[in-house]
Each structure stands twice: as structure tokens, then as C-alpha cells.
Amino acid sequence: MIYVLGVCGSPRVGGNTERLLLEALKIAEEEGAQTELVRLADKEIKPCDDCRSCKTTGQCHKKDDFKAIYKKMTKADGIILSSPVYFGSATPQIKALIDRAGTLSNRTGRPFENKVGGAMAVARRAGQNFTFAQLLFFFLHQGMIVPGSTYWNIAFGREKGEVTKDEEGMQTARNFGKRMVWLIKKIKSP
After folding, report:
1. What is the domain count for the chain?
2. Which residue range forms the structural domain that includes residue 169?
3. pTM of the entire structure?
4. At 69, is the secondary structure helix, strand, or coil?
5. How many Å apart are CA 36 and CA 9, to the nearest integer?
């Protein structure tokens, strides 16, 4: 079974970023994947303090929701990270997650290598390409494989639900979900 994890970095439950991510996950399910959505809105993820304790213990010493999410990330065949644009960049919640996940991964055998991953960003007006790149760099740094779509995985919307009016953005999310599962199947096939 293919498992695709979608992580929504928005502090707003049910907002535009979540809706865009759910569109990609819906198509991934239609293509045969088991999917799961993790919302960071109701989670506490503290920032990495580079204490390096993970290098000797194999885990992060901070007491928050990171450990459970990281476990899901390492189990997943595919990971989608999504964020709205906040002051021109990704939210602090998702940035803390990728900083800690990347640091722990690098110190414990790089469990994300050769997995499939991709980013999604939603903006009211601008900043989506920088936010998209911020998230994308996590995948590239971790040796992951990133499928394309028909455009960058970005969409526009401010008020809840507005993103669904961005038909090109929604279609790009659908195409991305389909390509992600296709690529995972190719990688996993003998």
C-alpha cells in the first residue's frame, strides 16, 4: 500500500491551504494511495535549538507534537508540505517542523532519501514562489524525489474557500496528486 502524508502548515483549520492540499490528497486516494492529513493548526511544534542531542540519542529532546508527526513522515512513501504565505514566507509552524525533521534526519541515517515529496503554497497576492521554494528545498536537501505538475503547486485565495475559485491552482493540485502516486508506484515496482 502506498501511503501519502499531507502536512498543512496553516494555523487556520479549513482554510485555503488545507483545501488545496485536500484536493491533491483526494486524487492520490483515487489513484490508490492511503492518505492522511496532519494539521499543524492544533499542534505545538517548537523550533530547533540545534542542541545536537538527537545526534547521540536518535530523537529530539523537546516535548511537543513533533515526534508523532516525524514518525508519520518517516513511514510515508510520499509527503506533501503546504503553507499559506505569511509575510512573504512559510508559516513558523511548518518551518519549525522542517527544520527539526531535517536536522533529526541528517543525524539518524537520512530516512527521507528516495521518498517522494512536494510542496504547495497559497497566497492572497504574492510570496507564493518564495514559500513554495522554502518548502521545496527541504525535499531537495533530504535527497527526495519531487514530481512536477502542470505548473508550480500554488494557488490564490484569502477568505476561506476562495482558493476553490482558482481553477488553474486546483487543477495543478489534482495533477500533482496524480503524478505523486504514479511516481511512487514506479519507484516501488520491482
Report:
1. 1
2. 2-188
3. 0.97
4. helix
5. 14
